Structures are given as structure tokens and as C-alpha cells.
Amino acid sequence: MPAIRRDFTGQTVITTFEMTPGTAQDLMDELKDAYDAFIRHQPGFLGAGLHMNDAQTRIANYSQWRRREDFQAMLRTEEMRERNRRIAALCSRFEPVMYEVSAVAEPA
Question: Which residues of the chain have pLDDT under 70?
Fold first, then answer.
């Protein structure tokens, strides 16, 4: 699981997926398989978390990479391009966005 820290210098990627409740579990299974079989073995991958809302209409994916170029290289592989075609068929839209950690709230 990634650790959200203000001093993190790598690349954070948050991807949101929108789908119907009927395809939510299929999409979650496809995403878990992508991480288990492929993504976690890619150079620069540091960790990820998958979150589904109660209505099963959205999945949020938080991932951390050593460098932006590592994430981009993974996306360009033939394996991930094929997986993204299957993922796209299970949701109405998905969008990966690269972020930098700006602030972190810790318990008192």
C-alpha cells in the first residue's frame, strides 16, 4: 500500500473509473489482475490501492511510481494497451491524472 507523505518525490497517479453497478465487480477483478500479473512487476512501481464507492459506480485507483517516465513506459507496453482496451469495455470512462503531494493531514 502506498504511503502518502509530503516528502514523497516520485510520481503519484490517481485514476478514476465510472461504471454501472452491473460491471463494477468485473472491472475490479480486471484491475486486480492487472496489478497482480503485470503492473507490480514493472520498473519504478512502488504501490497502489483500489477503492470502490458504496453505489458501485466509481473506482478510484491511487498509485505511486519512482518516476513519471516509469508510469508512462508501463502504459506504452503492448500488454497494458491490451488490458486498457478490456478495461475501457467495462466502464463508461476512465482517466489517469498525475499529481504531486501538496499536503498531508495526520491524526492529532
Answer: 1
Q: Which three cell numbers stand for residue 17?
A: 473509473
With H, G, I as helix, E, B as strand and everything else as coil, classify residue 89.
helix
Cα separation, 107 vs 84, whole angstroms: 37
Greatest CA separation for the chain? 46
pLDDT at residue 108, as a whole number: 87
Q: Quick one: which of 87, 104, 37, 47 has its CA closest to 71?
A: 47
DSSP string, 12-70: EEEEEEE--HHHHHHHHHHHHHHHHHTGGGSTTEEEEEEEE-TTSSEEEEEEEES-HHH
Q: What is the pTM of this model?
A: 0.92
Q: Are 62 and 45 within 8 A, CB to CB?
A: no
pLDDT of residue 20: 94
